[in-house]
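Blinded run. Sample ID left blank on purpose so nobody reads anything into the name before looking at the predicted structure. Input follows.
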Amino acid sequence: MKKYIFAIVLFAMCPFLIRAQVRVTFSVNMAAMVYNKLWDPATDSVTIRGNFQADAGDPNEDWAGFYYKMSLLQDTVYGVTVTFPSSKIGNSYTYKYVAGPNSWEVANIRSFTCPTKDSILSTYWFSDDSSHIPNNRVINTVTFTADISSILGTGDGYFNPAKDSLVVLGLDWNGGYVSVTGNRLMTESKYVVGKFSTTLQITGKLGTSCEWKFRIYPYESLINTGYETGANRQYVIQADSSIVNLPMVVPNFGGEPYILFSPVTTLFECDMNHNPVNAKNGRAIPVDSILFIGIKGGYSELGSWGGNWTEADTVQPNPTMVVLHDDGFFGDETAGDKIYSRSITFPAGSSAGIVEFNYSVSYPAAETDAGGITPLNNEGVPDIHHYFTLTEGKPTKVSVNFGTYYSTGINENESITNRFYLLQNYPNPFNPSTKIEYTVPGTGFVSLKIFDLLGREVATLVNKEMNAGSYSAKFNAAHLPSGIYFYKLTAGNNSIIKKMLLLK
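Blinded prediction complete.
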C-alpha cells in the first residue's frame, strides 16, 4: 500500500521535476541575407547573443562569443535551443542575432520572458528583412590614407613600423547590410615617410553612413586601446562602382599616452633680464616696476587656459593664472635677480607628455595701456606656446626668456637622462632656418638627419658620439625648395621621425 501511495505522489510531482530546467528554442530566417549575398551559408555562421547567456550557463560573458551558434533547421532557417534553470522562470531578457564574427542585425533589441515550460519562440527574419530584394546595394572601392609621420619612432607612444600595424576598423559597425572586403592592414608608401594606405571594397545600400576609425596594434602603450581619439569618422556609400580616394588625414592617437605614477615637481623660471617687450603694444616693459609674472597652460595646475588674462585670474581659491616670484620663495633660487620662478607639482594620475604654457607680465598700467580684451596676454604671438615634456622621474626645471619663443629652454638634463624624445621644430613652418631640440638617454652614437618627401637625405645635423642630456641643433634650408621635410633622430636602437614645413 505504501509503495502504491508513493508512486501516485511521484507521478503527481513529475511536471515539477520536469520543470527543473526549461528549454527555449530560437530561430532566424537568413533568406534575405543569402539572396543579397551578405551571408554565405557554406562559410558563415549566425549566433544569438544577449543578456541571458550567463543565466543559461554560458561560461563566457553576456552579449559576446559563439556559445550559442545556430544550426540549420530547414531551408534558410537556423535555430538553437537554450536551457535555463527553473529559477530563471519569469525573468525578462534581451537579445540579437549576429551574422559572421560581428555583424549585428539592424533591428530593435529583441526580448523574451523565460517561460514556465519548454517553448519554441517565433521565427524572425534577420534584421527584420523579408524582402528578398537587393535594396539598392552598391559597391564602392575606397582608398584610405593616413599620415603618421609625427609619431614614427620607438618606445611608448610611438609607432614603430618594425613591429606595429595600422588598420582601418569599422565601416560595418552600424549594420545597414554593409560588408567590407580587402586588406584592412595599411602599408607604408615606398616614397613618402609615414604615409600609410589601403584600399577596401564597401558593399551596402546607397547613402548608408558608415562609421570607422584608424587603430594601431599592439595597443598596450597607447591611449584608448590603440584607437584614434575623438568621434568616429564617417563614410557615406556613393553610386555603384564609385572609386573614391579619401583625403589623407593625420589621425590623433593621443600623443604621449602616459600617466604619472608619482608626483612630478617642475620649477618654472621666466628670465626678465633680456630687454622684454610687451607684445600688446610693442613697448619696453619697465622691469623695475613689475608687479608679478603669471603663467597659464594646458594643465589644471597651470589654469587650463582659463580666465581672461587679467589680474583677476590670480585670485584664490581657484586661480587660472599662477603667480611666479622673485623673492626667494616658492622655489625661487635668488631673490631680486629678475628671474621669476615657481615650483609647481603635477600630481600622480596626471597625463604625461607635452605641456604648453605662456607667461604674462603685470606692471602699473599694463592692463589699461594695452587696451582691448585679454590685456595680460602680452608675451607674444597668440597660439604660439612654450612647451616641455612632462615625464616620470626627478624634478625638472624649465627656463625661458620672456617673449623669446625660439629659445624656449629645457634645463632638465639631470632628470631626463632615462628618456629619449624629439621636440617639434620651432618655428614651424619656417624660412629659412629652424631649431630642433632633442634628448638622448645615455652615452652613444647619435645622428640627426633631414630627408625630403621622397626619403632622400638632404642634410646631416648631428653624426657623433654624445653624452646623455638635452641638446638643440639649427637647420638652415636656404638652399632647399619649399615643401615638407622630415627630421630623424637616431640613438642606438631608438629612432623618432617628425615632419616640418619649409615655406619660402
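Unblinding after everyone has recorded impressions. The mean pLDDT is 82.
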